[in-house]
Design brief:
The complex is a heterotetramer. By secondary structure, chain B is an all-alpha fold. Chain B starts with a helix and ends in a 7-residue tail after the last helix. Chain C is an alpha+beta fold. In chain C, 29% of the residues lie in helices and 17% in strands. Chain C contains 22 helices and 24 strands. In chain C, strands 14, 15, 16, 19, 20, 21 and 22 form a seven-stranded mixed sheet that branches. Chain C has a five-stranded antiparallel sheet with strand order 5-4-6-8-7, with helices on one face. Classes of the chains: A alpha/beta, B mainly alpha, C alpha+beta, D mainly alpha. Chains in contact: A-B, A-C, A-D, B-C, B-D, C-D. Chain C: One of its GO terms (cellular component) is ATP-binding cassette (ABC) transporter complex.
Chain lengths: 533, 325, 715, 460
């Protein structure tokens, strides 16, 4: 594109306020042209967000711009006064953030929050403003805006909140839109809608969009040009197509390679059932009134039936709140089922008492989503891993336990001496490995993996998944793999169960489900998954 | 919401019973009614007969908690605890041990207490918030540091020194206001202004510092960043985004004490000779007047519980996310 | 704040705590320090309360305002009582006959004395009481006594005294004297019983029940018959316990529901005195006003020698009272009370009790060799001082029943004497009471018959007479006595065990005084331990006699040695009288008791003096008390206050008081010019703080990113 | 007097204070193993302020500790006494008294200004001719070592120098020892040293000059104000620490149980603390203390010397203060436990079938420790201030116990004097203010370092 750039960043550097020598950003430079979507890609901590904040002069107190300039229509924003800056923010350059819920003022109506921008930058009277706002809300696709204009953020769904954010950003017809991870917190289907929205807006309004994301899929789908950020630098800048076909830097290559391969599927052979769930129901009571009588039930899981064979992986797919996690907890006997049967090796788990359950616990283990909160920060890795062995009375001497731990650590590709460290000394990926080691410590037959990779960066995610598969081959352990990310399923799961509103809508062999989805919801999900080509 | 309040009120009953039980035990675990009688009869020529009469008249001639030689329900009802403490639920406070009607005393003394407490409270909060906002405006600057240092020093000074010093300088040295006393009506401000000012000043350290931290927490939140990205100016951010949200935690701390204002401030009333409930309590405790103490404790806890309920209600009003149940 | 200051300027001076007065009226401003409990004449028994009710209630007799030693004069009575004597068959006998069984006091009243205006006496056309209510609901609009629009009065009659005495005899009124007087007034005990036998739900008309010893002879004459000889009884007749009480008032206060609103005799007095109570807020203050119906009562025209020179007789013959209103504010803390006096807002340094806290005393007085003088500062302010040696004694007592310090053996006596010498009372008074008191030489204080001035009057066991003044014996002397008592250097001469003595106090075992006392005992090697307790426990210990040493005090009811010596009468020990015995040290000396009985029945006379001397000697020898002293009170009066001669016993002295209001207001303005500069400074200060803040904000608004330094705008 | 003949008096508070200090040090050492909390402590001490305030607090605590070693001196054997039995004075001394030397015993007759040689009020004296005249009498002890009063000021200067140098020497020795023990790290030892030196010099000066003059004058009864203020330290420190210490076990157990087991346990605990906290604190304290006093008075047999009575009452005060502040901590812990027990690692523990006790001990307790710690330091200053107020009202510590509250209480009326007697108030004020200020600043830092909320903010 040869269009004049509306906003151009010239070798921008940002450092810590008190120790400005070690830089957070080093000589960042790029241009934004109208109607173009420029994607800034990088893994967490690469400095994407800092860039955007620096451009808006919204850096947190700890950080400070050490050099460089931001030219907006030819004039340097850094040399503008704070007052002039307020005139630019939201009016000429607008911004949307990752977590829409926290980014909206919880105690103000969304209408007021949009109106605020208008009040600041336009001369419209209140009537005109209201009209304008309703228009905006329609444009961003918020159903029945006349009513919702007086709602509070928490009354809206995540997608709707993000739409409101966009509405705020667009309120004063800005020339530049900075979108900082606008879809990370959203389910795939919503993500697709939002991205499409941004896409269309940039086209219709000749909007220059700076899209900050870590999801290559998203980039592929929406961006025109790509800048790859790595440790505070832009190491490669290319037009989208060229970037994906032959990336220059090998870091870029790793990024692309780390995207899960979605062409090959694991073929599954029917095996005898290890776990079988019949018509599982988990309902939570809703209390009300002076005497707290139960007046209604939240049906988290409403009649789920599935079986899982030895050494098999069953992926339980669904969007947030569909009850997949609750299912997992019920199988672990952490939540008490309302009805139904969970049979494991002939024992009906949900009827067992705490003590009767105890011996079975070593057979079923779990890996949690958040690698940061899933380990007690005050225990060494050794004690974290051996905790299960002790409580489940594997009858090992301390030395034997330690040996076992070492062995496990090696199995999950960590160093033996790591056992004396504390969790917060490890990266997310490493922690997830420790969590796996902990699960394996009591050599279980079934591990329930609750979104084990969704908090990880793409590259580490791939590694963890590979590890899990290896272990399955070695130990013949079965996984119930709970996830919202369809893209990782093909190479991972033998069979897939798609869950919606507490029910399983479709259950079958991975290939079948992903290639010829029967249920409309499954199809919708698949459509939403960003494709690389 | 209504149902909620009902539930809270129901929940209050066992609490109040417990409160009564505690005070009751406190008083009668070591004191026998005879002791109380002696404490209230005169100095000279006290006969056993007189004590006997006093105890009988005051109705202390029952067993404390359980009446063995009564039968049926009377075993419970025919005791001091039932007749003295549980009667309070009917808001029948009875008479003080010196024969005066407690309800009237409480009512008459409430006025001065409030006259002192409410201004101190309102002005105090207002000033604290203003100061805190200013400081937050200059966060991460030397002004901020200096202010915090000032706050901490202020709150490190015992309230006694504020009162003693203030009274000495303003009233004794400079003769700007009466040293102590109270006149109801138009003259009142003359006596109240000094205690109020002192009360406010002595509160600034703690209050402003607390509000500052609350504001700072809010300032770092995403929606504030959003507001800035919208182009809202610093002041706008503070007043339209930070303040309303920071008010929520402030509510919890503040609303709960509002009813307790009725109880008056012990020190202030003692030092400035204001005939409020604070000094009333003090005298009662010193005179071991169980009748008054149990009443004040009862009233106090009722007000406290009221405060809790008020807090929740005010919360639902301030924060659309909160629903009572 | 500024606004308030402006409005403040309308006042003469900003710190005037007193409410504005009506023009032309003379208002007295006073204070009291303890919250009043009882105002019922038959119940109240404390000096603080007497300060008020003695202005309102009058007894048949009162003390002469000026004359010393204290003498009685008729108040409501026409003359002094005519006393006649009867034997047990009610036959008249001469006094000197051996122990008459009864004495009869006949009191004749002055005519047409009228009560203060009071709703209880309000009448309607049919001459029926206006305010009588069937049930509580019909009287609800009257919250306090002052809500009643109508009031009335009536003449005082002898029956009112009878009614008053019957109220005293009624146990329901909890008169502290009930037990005591029952021993004297004939039939009082039975009366109490019969009264309690009645139905006491509502008002009980005491007139219907006879009290044998009290007889209404005619409209103006009352006869009281008491058992045996008790000359001191006439003094009781000068106390508010014998004040008249109109039966209408008693009935009025028994209206249904009045009790719950504190509308009782115990709260709203009704009397014939010079003042009436028009405001009674126990929490903030009390107001007395001139009683419009007060009889013509003229300022005394003769006084003690020297009174004329002191100007106490300038108002002789003028009708009293001289002030229209007296307002008293409750001042719990001594500091503000004193400061207000110094600012001229109080006319006197205080009205009740010891009102110059010792720290203030240093400022007010300069203690010099020949007593206590006003400091220069006070003299400049024209402040006058009036002193008063109270007929009282504060002392430490040994429990004579105690195995260690008690007993009548020579050794024990020596031990007690040794301690009595060791505790340097003079030093105590010097340090802690600023010399406001005089060390006791015996149980009888000055101004009371039996007290002897000079060399003859000293306690030879403790003092020597050295160049014209008593001088305490040396510590060595005390040590010698102690050794003789079997405790050389305070160690048991057999076991060497240190002698540890226990002193019961309510004060707590700390603070300067406690330290000082410990050191006094250490002087002769005795270790002192305190056993502190609250007042109730203390009384209990005293009652059960399980104390060793204790502090005690006695304030005379009337100026007669009997009122002091009975504190040592064997029949008064808790044990013997089965009550809170007045004989706290359980001193039971048969010889003494015998003399006491004789002395009691006598009028003052040389013979009596002789008896007293012998009794005092016994007490000095046995030393059941030690470190005794008689308090001497100092009261400061602002220059505009006159006729302030303190009376040791009588409290009804307000009617004599005179004020020069013109001078007062002029002085007040002069003493209370506010200092304004701190205000201005304060305002300036805040401005100084605000201003740079604003500028800083401005600067911040026009801030750009300066890349070289790390100073950044808002982030 | 040789040490071995004295009879040690062990007061409950002494015992508890020592226990407390020991346990806290142990606790801190246990924390060192965990790098996270080690970092947090490092963060606290890496700031100059943190180091300085900590050392100030430490010196206060040290004084309190020294003052908590009580003993009774023996009486000289008397005639006829069998030799093996020794009798003891009923005066209780503490080691601190020994260090302070004469300061406690040197009583004047009444007020005297700081450093004064003459009494504050005139008295009448008799001269050689025997006629009485009024003047300010010389003080009995202050400056008694001077033979010529004229060189008062020079001597003052000189003695101050001596005192300061003494302190300096001592401080240098201390620092040397410290240098020896501590390996150098990122912490600002320089500040530590200077603080120590300053404190030592100050103490040295106070000790030396304070034994010659009355640095802060004397009070009504002629007691040395400086001595009283220093003795007040023990009370202040004790009340600040014991009250929290006493209430902690209850609060922790109940709070955690409520948060962990939920259900009826939770309801009961909540009922308990709502009930307690709904009673007006001051009333509860006052009533309790008065009743406790009555109890003490009823059983004088329990206590051998007066001090023990005061001590018992003091314990009572700590206890009731603990009770009143108990609810707050309990509430916090409950909430935190509720949060933690939802965290994955607790869930994982459940998945491993770990027993409740073990879960609480291993997972919950260590992770609420910061709350306990923060409450401890935050409450400290508040309690010290509370003591003063309560003592003023008359429901504080026993009036025989040297405490700042009692000092203020006694000193109040002195403001009405002319010229004003200010030193008693100032003495109490200065010592109290220093402690509370240091405590506040320190607790701020601790809070900042240990409060997870703040940690996130720093992460940003």
């Amino acid at each position: 594109m040869t269009q004049a750039s509306v906003l151009s960043v010239r070798n921008l550097s940002v450092g810590l306020k008190n120790r400005s020598q070690d830089a957070v950003l080093k000589n960042i430079s790029f241009d934004l042209t109208p109607g173009e979507i420029y994607a800034l890609v990088g893994e967490s901590g690469s400095g994407k967000s800092v860039t955007s904040l620096a451009m808006m002069r919204l850096l947190p107190d700890a950080l400070t711009v050490t050099e460089g300039e931001v030219l907006f229509e030819g004039q340097d924003l850094f040399s503008a006064t704070e007052q002039q800056m307020t005139a630019v923010r939201g009016h000429r350059i607008a911004m949307i953030f990752q977590d829409a819920l926290t980014s909206l003022n919880p105690v103000k109506k969304i209408g007021t929050q949009i109106e605020e921008a208008l009040k600041l930058h336009t001369t419209l009277d209140s009537k005109a403003r209201r009209k304008h706002i309703i228009g905006l809300l329609q444009e961003v696709g918020l159903p029945e805006p006349e009513r919702r204009i007086d709602w509070y953020p928490h009354q809206l769904s995540g997608g709707q909140q993000q739409r409101v954010m966009i509405a705020i950003a667009l309120a004063c017809e800005p020339d530049v839109l900075i979108a900082d991870e606008p879809t990370t917190a959203l389910d795939v289907t919503i993500q697709k809608q939002v991205l499409d929205l941004i896409h269309s807006l940039s086209r219709s309004r000749q909007l220059a969009v700076l899209l900050i994301t870590h999801d290559m899929g998203v980039v592929r789908e929406t961006a025109h040009r790509v800048g790859v950020m790595y440790q505070g630098e832009i190491i490669e800048e290319e037009s989208c197509d060229r970037f994906f076909h032959n990336p220059q830097k090998d870091y870029s290559r790793r990024l692309i390679a780390s995207l899960p391969d979605q062409r090959h599927f694991r073929d599954s052979t029917p095996v005898d059932a290890l776990l079988s769930v019949q018509n599982l129901k988990v309902h939570f009571p809703q209390r009300q009134g002076a005497l707290q009588r139960i007046h209604n039930w939240t049906k988290a899981v409403d009649g789920v039936s599935l079986t899982l064979g030895h050494g098999e992986t069953l992926a339980l797919v669904g969007e947030s709140g569909c009850g997949k996690t609750t299912t997992g907890r019920a199988i672990l006997n952490l939540d008490q089922p309302t009805s139904g049967h969970i049979t494991f090796e002939g024992h009906t788990l949900n009827t067992l008492s705490r003590s009767a359950m105890h011996p079975l616990r070593r057979k079923i283990q779990v890996i949690f989503q958040d690698p940061y909160s899933s380990m007690n920060p005050r225990m060494t890795v050794l004690r974290i891993i051996e905790e299960g062995m002790i409580s489940l009375k594997l009858g090992l001497t301390p030395n034997q336990r330690e040996e076992r731990v070492i062995e496990l650590l090696q199995k999950v590709q960590l160093e033996p001496e790591h056992r004396h460290r504390y969790p917060h000394e490890f990266s997310g990926g490493q922690r997830q490995r420790i969590a796996i080691a902990r699960a394996l410590a009591v050599n279980p037959q079934l591990i329930i993996c609750d979104e084990p990779t969704s908090a990880l960066d793409v590259s580490t995610r791939a590694e963890v998944l590979k590890l899990l598969q290896q272990l399955q081959q070695e130990l013949g352990v079965s996984y119930l793999f709970i996830t919202h990310d369809l893209s990782i399923i093909p190479q991972l799961a033998h069979r897939v169960a798609v869950m919606k509103e507490g029910k399983i809508v479709e259950l079958g062999v991975t290939k079948a489900v992903l290639t010829q989805p029967q249920h409309s919801y499954t199809q919708e999900l698949l459509r939403a998954v960003p494709q690389l080509e | 919401m209504f149902a909620y309040i009902i539930r809270r009120l129901l929940y209050a009953i066992p609490i109040l019973v417990g409160v009564n039980l505690i005070t009751f035990v406190l008083f009668f675990v070591v004191n026998s009614p005879e002791d109380v009688a002696r404490a209230h009869l005169g100095e000279k020529y006290v006969t056993p007969q007189a004590i006997e009469n006093w105890v009988h008249e005051k109705g202390y001639n029952h067993p404390l908690m359980y009446n063995a030689d009564a039968d049926g329900l009377n075993r419970i009802t025919d005791t001091i605890f039932y007749q003295k403490s549980l009667k309070l639920f009917t808001l029948d406070f009875g008479q003080a041990d010196d024969g005066r009607d407690i309800a009237t005393d409480v009512l008459t003394r409430m006025g001065p207490s409030l006259a002192l407490a409410i201004p101190t409270f309102v002005i105090g909060i207002w000033i604290n918030i203003c100061v805190a906002l200013i400081v937050v405006m200059f966060r991460a600057t030397h002004l901020d540091k200096a202010a915090v240092a000032l706050f901490v020093s202020l709150m490190s000074i015992s309230g006694l020194f504020y009162i003693i010093g203030g009274q000495y300088m303003v009233a004794t040295l400079w003769r700007l206001v009466p040293i102590s006393g109270f006149e109801p009506g138009a003259m009142a401000w003359k006596f109240l202004i000094l205690p109020v000012v002192i009360g406010v000043i002595s509160g600034i350290g703690l209050g402003a510092r607390w509000y500052r931290t609350l504001f700072l927490e809010t300032v770092d939140q995403d929606f504030v960043r959003t507001a800035r990205a919208k182009g809202v100016s610093e002041l706008g951010v503070l007043f339209h985004h930070v303040l309303p949200n920071a008010l929520l935690p402030i509510l919890t701390g503040v609303v709960v004490v509002i009813p307790s204002l009725f109880m008056g401030s012990l020190l202030m009333e003692a030092f400035f000779g204001i005939p409020g409930l604070g000094s009333y309590m003090l005298d009662a405790i010193r005179a071991q007047d169980f009748a008054i103490v149990r009443t004040m404790v009862f009233v106090g806890s009722v007000l406290y519980i009221l405060g809790l309920i008020l807090t929740d209600i005010s919360y639902t009003m301030a924060d659309p996310r909160v629903r009572l149940n | 704040m500024l606004v308030m200051i402006m409005t403040g300027c309308t006042d003469t001076s900003w710190n005037n705590p007193n409410p504005p007065e009506q023009p032309g009226e003379t208002v007295y401003y006073g204070s009291f320090s303890t919250r009043l409990q009882h105002l019922d004449p038959v119940r109240s028994y404390s000096a603080e309360e007497a300060l008020f009710i003695d202005q309102i209630y009058e007894a048949p007799y009162r003390y002469h305002f000026l004359k010393r030693p204290y003498v009685l004069e008729p108040a409501l009575a026409k003359g002094m009582p005519e006393v006649s004597y009867l034997d047990k068959h009610l036959k008249p006998v001469p006094r000197d006959s051996s122990q008459p069984a009864y004495s009869v006091y006949i009191i004749t009243l002055k005519p047409n004395i009228r009560y203060q205006p009071h709703p209880a006496l309000a009448k309607d056309e049919q001459d029926n009481a206006l305010y009588l209510f069937k049930d509580e609901s019909s009287a609800l609009q009257y919250k306090t006594l002052y809500d009643f629009p109508q009031s009335g009065t009536r003449e005082l009659i002898a029956a009112d005294f009878a009614y008053g005495i019957k109220r005293l005899a009624d146990p329901k009124n909890k008169s502290p004297l009930l037990g005591f007087l029952s021993n004297y007034i004939v039939g009082m005990e039975d009366f109490s019983k019969t009264v309690m036998a009645q139905d006491r739900s509502g008002w009980l008309d005491l007139r219907t029940l006879p009290l044998e010893g009290v007889e209404v002879v005619d409209k103006y004459t009352l006869a009281i018959r008491i058992k045996g000889l008790y000359p001191q009884f006439r003094y009781w007749l000068a106390m508010h316990f014998f004040a008249p009480m109109p039966w209408e008032a008693d009935r009025f206060y028994h209206n249904p529901g009045f009790q719950n609103r504190n509308m009782t005799v115990d709260w709203y007095p009704i009397g014939t005195g010079a003042f009436m109570m028009t405001r009674n807020d126990p929490n903030s203050g009390i107001t007395l006003e001139r009683n419009p119906n007060y009889r013509t009562d003229l300022f005394p025209s003769e006084g003690a020698p020297g009174d004329k020179e002191k100007g106490f007789l300038t108002d002789a013959g003028k009708p009293m009272p001289f002030i229209d209103r007296a307002t008293f504010r409750l001042e719990k803390e001594s500091l503000p009370q004193w400061s207000k006096f110094m600012q001229g807002w109080y006319d006197r340094s205080g009205d009740d009790g010891a009102n110059i806290s010792s720290s203030n005393f240093d400022r007010a007085f300069t203690v010099s060799g020949n007593g206590v003088d006003l400091s220069q500062e006070m003299l400049d302010r024209g402040i006058t001082v009036s002193t008063e040696l109270k007929p009282s004694i504060y002392y430490y007592g040994f429990n004579m029943k105690d195995p260690v310090v008690g007993g009548t053996t020579e050794a024990k006596r020596k031990l007690r004497q040794a301690i009595s010498i060791a505790i340097n009372t003079e030093e105590f008074l010097e340090i802690f009471a600023n010399g406001r008191g005089q060390a006791a030489q015996g149980p009888i204080p000055p101004g009371i018959p039996g007290y002897v001035e000079g060399k003859a009057g000293i306690n030879p066991y403790i003092y020597d007479w050295v160049d014209g003044r008593p001088q305490r014996k040396s510590v060595e002397q005390a040590k010698r006595l102690l050794a003789e008592a079997g405790y050389p250097n305070g160690r048991d001469k057999n076991t060497g065990q240190p002698l540890i003595l226990y002193l019961d106090t309510t004060g707590g075992d700390a603070g300067p005084i406690a330290d000082w006392r410990r050191r006094q005992f250490e002087k002769i090697g005795i270790q002192l331990e305190y056993r502190t307790s609250d007042y109730v426990r203390f009384k209990e210990k005293m009652r059960n006699g399980n104390t060793q040493m204790f502090g005690w005090g006695w304030l005379a009811d009337y100026p007669d040695p009997e009122n002091f010596l009975f504190l040592l009468d064997g029949s008064q020990t808790s044990e013997n009288c089965q009550c809170d015995g007045a004989n706290t040290s359980n001193y039971d000396n048969p010889a003494f008791n015998l003399l006491f009985q004789q002395m009691k029945a006598m009028d003052n006379s040389p013979e009596r003096e002789a008896l007293l001397a012998r009794m005092v000697e016994m007490v000095r020898k046995d030393a059941p008390w030690f470190s005794g002293y008689h308090t001497k009170e100092y009261y400061l009066n602002n220059s505009w206050v006159s006729n302030v001669k303190r009376h040791g016993i009588a409290k009804d002295t307000f009617k004599y008081l005179r004020l020069d209001t013109a001078e007062r207001s002029q002085r007040q303005v002069q003493w209370n010019t506010p200092v304004v500069w701190p205000l201005i400074a304060g305002l300036a200060g805040t401005a100084i703080i605000i201003f740079p803040a604003i500028r800083a904000y401005r600067r911040r608004q026009t801030q750009t990113i300066n890349k070289s330094t790390s100073q950044r705008g808002n982030g | 007097m040789d040490i071995f003949t004295v009879k040690p008096v062990i007061l409950w508070t002494d015992l508890m204070l020592w226990l407390l200090v020991i346990s806290i040090t142990a606790f801190l050492f246990s924390l060192r193993s965990n790098p996270e909390s080690r970092d947090q402590w490092r963060q606290v001490f890496s700031s100059r302020l943190g180091m300085a305030t900590f050392i100030i607090i430490l010196s206060y605590i040290t004084l309190a500790l020294i003052d908590s070693l009580h003993f009774r001196k023996p009486l000289p054997p008397a005639a006829g006494q069998n030799p093996e039995t020794t009798y003891y004075s009923n005066k209780v001394h503490s080691v601190l008294d020994l260090i302070l030397g004469e300061m406690g015993e040197r009583k004047e007759r009444s007020y005297s200004e700081p450093f004064a040689l003459k009494s504050f009020t005139k008295e009448n004296m008799t001269n050689e001719q025997g006629q009485t005249y009024r003047d300010y009498p010389d003080l009995e002890h202050a400056g008694s070592h001077l033979e010529n009063k004229a060189e008062h000021h020079r001597d003052l200067l000189w003695q101050s120098l001596i005192g300061l140098t003494k302190g300096l020497l001592f401080g240098v020795i201390l620092c040397a020892l410290m240098k020896g023990t501590t390996r150098s790290s990122s912490l600002p030892w320089g500040t530590a040293m200077t603080t120590i030196l300053v404190i030592c010099m100050l103490l040295g000066w106070l000790l030396h000059v304070g034994n010659l003059y009355h640095i802060l004058g004397t009070d009504r009864a002629g007691n040395d104000t400086l001595y009283d203020s220093i003795k007040g330290i023990r009370t202040g420190v004790l009340i600040g620490t014991l009250a929290t210490l006493i209430m902690m076990p209850i609060a922790i157990t109940l709070g955690i149980c409520a948060g962990y087991f939920k259900g009826w346990v939770d309801d009961t605990v909540q009922y308990l603390y709502t009930t307690l906290s709904s009673i007006p604190g001051i009333l509860l304290i006052a009533a309790a203390i008065l009743q406790f006093q009555v109890f003490i008075d009823l059983n004088p047999g329990f206590f051998e010397v007066g001090l023990e009575k005061a001590d018992a009452r003091f314990l009572g005060l700590c206890f009731i203060l603990g009770i009143t502040s108990w609810a707050g901590l309990c509430r916090l812990l409950r909430a935190e436990t509720l949060k933690i027990s939802q965290l994955p690692y607790v869930q994982a523990a459940h998945a491993f079938g770990v027993s409740h006790i073990r879960v609480i001990r291993q997972h919950i307790l260590p992770n609420v420790m910061h709350i306990i710690l923060i409450t401890f330091v935050l409450d400290f200053s508040g309690l010290v201030l509370a003591e003063a107020v309560l003592s003023y009202i008359g429901v504080g510590v026993d009036s025989s116990m040297p405490s700042w509250g009692n000092m203020i209480n006694l000193a109040r009326s002195e403001l009405s004097q002319e010229p004003v007697v200010w030193w008693n108030l100032v003495g109490a004020f200065f010592f109290m203010f220093t402690l509370v200020l240091a405590a506040n600043l320190f607790s701020d830092l601790v809070n900042e370092a240990f409060n997870p909320k703040n940690r996130q903010e720093r992460a940003q």
